[in-house]
User: Which sequence fits this backbone?
């Protein structure tokens, strides 16, 4: 059985619908060659290094008190008494950046035939401070006389202003190094550099100087512990992308 009514779409309507689609496809195709014809930017990437050495002027010291005993109470009390004496001495010498870095109290064990038995307790109190290199040795000796039983570390650092100036100089050296590298390569290829496209700066950390610390027992009439600061290194990297 045939349907009673047939709906026919005029041919003119179908072309009107399809024509914009066809034109749109042609535009997309013709854009690709235009993008492909655009000139590519040629760049060379170089990394320069700058290094400066700065004389250290301050010693950063960490020292403390270690006490052992039979009971936790007596050990903690004795550690607190000695620590207070050391802190009072350091404050009297006007050290800077004085702060507590650790307070511990732990049992000590004896292991026999697989059995664990507490035989005592050990307390550690430690502080950190900064002082000029010239008096660091004397302060170490006097701190031990005041009650300190540990010298954990001595590091040497430069003043903030000196580090800041050294970093600026190292950045200039790194930038010149990168430009010299680019010029050498491009000259060898018969090319010339143009403008700088990107700049990336990486300032590496300046770790304090940790010399070997060998503190030996001295007689009362001997000189104080020798402390020699040395130099602190400042290193920077500058990466340039230069168009040619």
Assistant:
């Amino acid at each position: 059985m045939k349907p009673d009514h047939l709906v026919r779409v005029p041919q003119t309507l179908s072309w009107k619908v399809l024509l914009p689609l066809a034109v749109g496809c042609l535009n997309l195709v013709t854009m690709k060659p235009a993008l492909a014809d655009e000139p590519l930017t040629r760049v060379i990437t170089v990394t320069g290094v700058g290094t400066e050495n700065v004389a250290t002027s301050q010693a950063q010291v960490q020292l403390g008190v270690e006490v052992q005993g039979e009971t936790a109470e007596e050990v903690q009390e004795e550690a607190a008494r000695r620590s207070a004496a050391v802190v009072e001495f350091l404050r009297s010498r006007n050290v800077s950046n004085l702060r507590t870095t650790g307070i511990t109290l732990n049992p000590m064990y004896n292991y026999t035939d697989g059995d664990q038995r507490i035989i005592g307790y050990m307390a550690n109190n430690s502080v950190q401070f900064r002082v000029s290199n010239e008096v660091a040795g004397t302060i170490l000796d006097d701190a031990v006389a005041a009650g300190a039983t540990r010298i954990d570390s001595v590091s040497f650092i430069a003043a903030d202003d000196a580090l800041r100036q050294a970093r600026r100089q190292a950045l200039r050296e790194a930038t010149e190094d990168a430009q010299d590298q680019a010029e050498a390569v491009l000259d060898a290829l018969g090319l010339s550099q143009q403008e700088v496209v990107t700049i990336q700066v990486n300032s590496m950390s300046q770790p304090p100087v940790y010399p070997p610390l060998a503190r030996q027992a001295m007689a009362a009439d001997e000189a104080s512990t020798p402390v020699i600061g040395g130099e602190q290194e400042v290193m920077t990297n500058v990466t340039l992308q230069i168009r040619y």
